[in-house]
Design goal:
The protein is of the alpha/beta class. It has twelve helices and nine strands. The structure holds zinc ion.
């Protein structure tokens, strides 16, 4: 079954450790080998500039990650193909895997829209507005102030609309989320779960989930253990609980996956790396019809991409 995974942090790991080879590195949750064996069709690769990089250096590091994406992933293996649109995904041949470039947090663009345009020119097609803290676009969900989009943040969302980029609300403050609901045209939540089931700040309230469903956006259910279960150790069963809850809110056609593999140190039991998607798919097929499972795994996110 084809898989579209909307979020991973392979680029960060490869930036931190230049020795890593994407093909079969043991310390990676996602490798070329896993993708090939497990039916991957599109993998999103996030540019995430860690907090310790200081202001003016951030954009430079973002560009280094773009370089890793091209030189060590897209150009290094025949199977990997850059994809930037729905059309390019539909044109992938069997055996080819689409690599889709995303930005996690606008910290690296500062207050400069030209940097966003440059990232778009380099192939980035999804823009996460914040990580956990505040930047010049908006507050992240862990920022106590809890402010929404700044004036510049609204310009960023309007530019995303104009360039047909996804605006990703994962990590964003609640106020920021509702601002994006007003301004944004192509909105997704790449890696967030249900706050009703697991009250972590990074998760989405039922009201947020319902408003995403209403505008036919996609929510990438994520495998981050602390977003899956608050008390016990998380497992694959918890992923199914979150899916079931979003379905109960009317969102069965709005569910996808955003694993956050390689951005997490702990993984849920039975979902230790990308290869374990197979197990998840088998489990899903026991509870949902095949069309829907195909939707969760691939079709829903693919459907929502701008042309
Ligand atoms: Zn994240």
């Amino acid at each position: 079954m084809k898989i579209f995974d909307a979020h991973c942090d392979v680029l960060l790991k490869m930036w931190l450790n230049p020795q890593i080879a994407f093909e079969n590195e043991k310390s990676l949750h996602i490798t070329l080998d896993h993708l090939k064996k497990t039916g991957a069709k599109v993998q999103c690769f996030a540019i995430f500039v860690p907090d310790h990089v200081s202001g003016p250096e951030k954009f430079h590091v973002a560009l280094q990650m773009v370089d890793i994406f091209y030189s060590k992933i897209v150009e290094a293996y025949d199977e990997m193909k850059l994809v930037t649109s729905k059309r390019e995904i539909e044109a992938l041949e069997s055996g080819e895997i689409g690599a889709f470039l995303t930005l996690e947090g606008c910290d690296s663009i500062g207050d400069d829209l030209s940097k966003l345009r440059i990232l778009h020119r380099l192939g980035v097609r999804s823009i996460g507005l914040t990580w956990n803290h505040a930047n010049l676009v908006a507050d992240g969900i862990m920022e106590e102030r809890g402010a929404g989009l700044t004036t510049f943040g609204k310009e960023v969302v309007r530019l995303n609309n104009e360039l047909k980029l996804w605006t990703d609300v994962s990590h964003l403050s609640e106020k920021g989320f509702w601002d994006v609901m007003e301004e944004g045209k192509y909105v997704i939540a790449s890696h967030s779960n249900s706050k009703k089931l697991c009250p972590h700040p990074r998760n989405l309230t039922d009201e947020q989930i319902k408003s995403l469903i209403k505008r036919d956006s996609i929510i990438g259910v994520t495998f981050v253990p602390k977003f899956l279960a608050s008390e016990q150790k998380a497992s694959l069963t918890d992923v199914l609980r979150h899916i079931e809850h979003i379905c109960s809110l009317g969102g069965e056609k709005n569910i996808g996956f955003g694993s956050d593999f390689d951005g997490i140190t702990d993984t849920p039991a039975q979902l230790e790396h990308y290869g374990k998607y197979e197990k998840l798919i088998n489990e899903l097929l026991k509870h949902y019809n095949e069309t829907l499972v195909k939707g969760f795994c691939f079709d829903h996110f693919a459907r929502q991409l701008p042309e």
